[in-house]
Design goal:
single chain; alpha+beta; 3 helices
């Protein structure tokens, strides 16, 4: 079991790390595709295809998959942003687990009820003869 002091320290560390990640986070997953063009005689028809072409896809508010094309010039920054989003999610999950543990540790204890009190308050049992 972790101590309260170490939990507070871990929580403070996580909260400090969230701010810089949140500034650059981009929601979604990054994928790279390679394609052939329509020009006859182009090298992509028989050999290496054109690409990589980067796309970010994500689940939209209506539950449908949406996405967008990433221009090559923005590729490195988008990769960093998507990685920041994944790191942000991992740290938020850890923070949520710390919050859950703290909540459970702070809950009031259940009242102790003796067996004799349970029988007196509850329905009486009739044993078959």
């Amino acid at each position: 079991m972790t101590s309260v002091t170490s939990t507070r320290g871990r929580r403070a560390t996580l909260l400090r790390r969230l701010r810089p990640l949140a500034r650059q986070a981009l929601f979604g997953t990054l994928s790279a595709t390679y394609r052939t063009c329509g020009r006859a005689g182009c090298h992509c028809q028989a050999g290496a295809k054109h690409g990589p072409h980067l796309y970010v896809s994500f689940r939209g508010p209506a539950g449908t998959t949406a996405g967008y094309y990433v221009p090559q010039a923005l590729g490195p920054r988008v990769r960093t942003g998507v990685a920041a989003w994944q790191a942000l999610q991992a740290q938020l999950r850890e923070l949520a687990e710390l919050n859950r543990r703290q909540l459970w540790a702070a809950r009031p204890p259940r009242p102790q009820v003796r067996r004799s009190q349970r029988r007196a308050d509850g329905p009486t049992r009739v044993r078959p003869a």
